[in-house]
Predict the structure of Methane monooxygenase.
Amino acid sequence: MKEQIHQVTLNFADGVSRSFDVAAKSTILDAALAADVPLLYQCQSGSCSSCIAQLSEGDAVTRPGASSTLLASEYAAGQRLLCLCQAQSDCTFELGYSSEIGSSVAKEVNAFVDSVERIASNVVRLTLELADGDWLDFRPGQFVQIQVPGFGVVRSYSPSSTQSNLPKLQLLIRLLPGGAMSSYLEERAQAEDVLTLSGPYGAFFLREDKRRAPHIFVAGGTGLAPILSMIDALYQSSGRKPPMLLNFGCATPDALFCLDDIELRQQWLPSLEARICVDREPEPGMHQGSPVSALRESDVSSADTVAYLCGPQPMINAATTRLIELGVNPANIFSELFVASN
């Protein structure tokens, strides 16, 4: 029996549309890549959410037996991960980025270790400098992958700096006992070491078409890194700055970091409000509880509010639910799972 074929149309944010055929048992991402459609993707296993899209017409389901990072509420609202998605009819998807973003190709570059600075009980700031002739075109929020010297593994990190800081690149890295990158940074890293990077990757980045809308940032742990990059990009942009709220949290005060950097940005940006959150032993001026619990009804006063969430999965799930309750359009909530690797 001949396998059924469906037509899938992808609408990019810049008005470009691409249509292609998909076999019923093939994933939409695989068919799109075979048709040279410029999509953002990375893991191809449903764990990074880079290939997320909004189903607007037709029927498409997650491949039987596959698991993904999508919440049940997000799936019910029409969000799909194209790497796991199979078309059940002709269907149309809306993409939250323009066609030229997906067409940018990740590349490999070399960078020298400039410094390794411990900035909290379990966090270091790694500063790199790209080798002469190498360059990275990344958007605030995207991530790079680093080959860990001597361990034969790759780790992913979002720069806390912006492209305007190049050739310098700053990363915030959580230290884990026995972790590959942690062991390298604590025991072996030296200035002028050469690291191999590739990127950029990811669909989590500052949306240019939403720069004037009120912004809410929710960050847990080293999920602060891409958020700082986004805030700096907004500061560096021309024109009026939007209202911004940053809720940043860690378990205890000794685990917090970059508080001086956040305070400095508040001096630069009068429209930026920051709430520092800890689960236990709060110091004066800190909110006791998660960055999600620090969200208030008054924080969402505009239907155009856009939110960026970065941290562990439970925080992202809770923040998404809470922001929707407060009136944020689910289509304006962007998130990136940020966890340390062993």
Q: What stands out?
A: The chain has seven helices and 19 strands. The two ends are 46 Å apart (CA to CA).
